[in-house]
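Quick note —
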Amino acid sequence: MMSVTRLLAVSRKELLQLRRDSRSLTLAFALPLILLVLFGYAISWDITNINTAILDDDESARSRELVDALQSSGYFRLVRRLDRAADTATLFDDGRVMVALVIPPDFAADLDGGRQARVQALVDGSDANTATVALAYLQAVVQTYSTRVQAQGRLRPPILVESRVWYNEALASRNMIVPGLVAVIMMIIAAILTSLTIAREWERGTMEQLAATPVTRVEVVLGKLLPYLGIGLVDVVLSSVLGVLLFQVPFRGSPALLMALSTLFLLGALGLGIFISVIARSQLLATQIAMVATFLPAFLLSGFMFAIEVMPDALRAVTYAVPARYFLVVTRGIFLKGVGVEVLRVQGWLMIGFAIVGLTLAIVTFRKELD
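Predicted structure written out below.
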């Protein structure tokens, strides 16, 4: 039967090794915060200050109003006024502008005469994503200006859309990026930290001493896992506090629920790291395997960077085996929506399953016997 005394003795031994290894302590506490700050500022889907050129052949009060509306939107930055349309190609080739707006000479006359006025939007499509967003912004600004002109003429638009955004009112991308980063970083850090544990015993030649003790496989795995579970929970708290204070991300849910589900997720990730450490027997190899097995799936296949709904069917099927996919729903749901157990119960059961699989893999593959 499992002995609590032996389990705590293994945990104490692991804590002593951690205290003497400053690099591991730095990796455990500093790296998650560094990654959160780095990715939090570096990754953004908000597109602002789009370099824009204007060709105003009308030069009327109406055309100036449209240009002012474009600039005051905050999305476009006027960097060049053109004298002829042929200059647009040169600016696009040099990458100096992304958007060019051409206002024809009869723009004001058509508006004041009650006719449909037309403007031409030219967009550099070499960056398809930015071009799509820029074009959508431009159409929204022009539509808003058109509605204002109709109101001035006491004409009501046929359809008036009154929109309200829930949970992320400012549509700021960092509000969804930062909670997602907490899930991705915890997956990476937890697996990397424990991937060094068993491999360290082999490289330092202390596995013989461990094999001579009466501790069981379960006691070794759980004893080595417990210190890192505490470190992981501290990292979750620090990352969450940093996200709220530094990035102004709202936290509307229950901290206790976040910690409970984080515990389940970390147990699975830590167990996966120990499993990697057992099969690798080398700290360098274990670290490399842990990075490939956690970073790429968590970053690319969890729904953090790319929406799962737009992935091919085969790749979408693979995402079901990525635990970060489910923890991502947990962090975003608790941070932004304030949802509870009634909404996250499916993810909770999946976290329990992940914890069981991770711990089982670690315990089954670990052997005290020497070659």
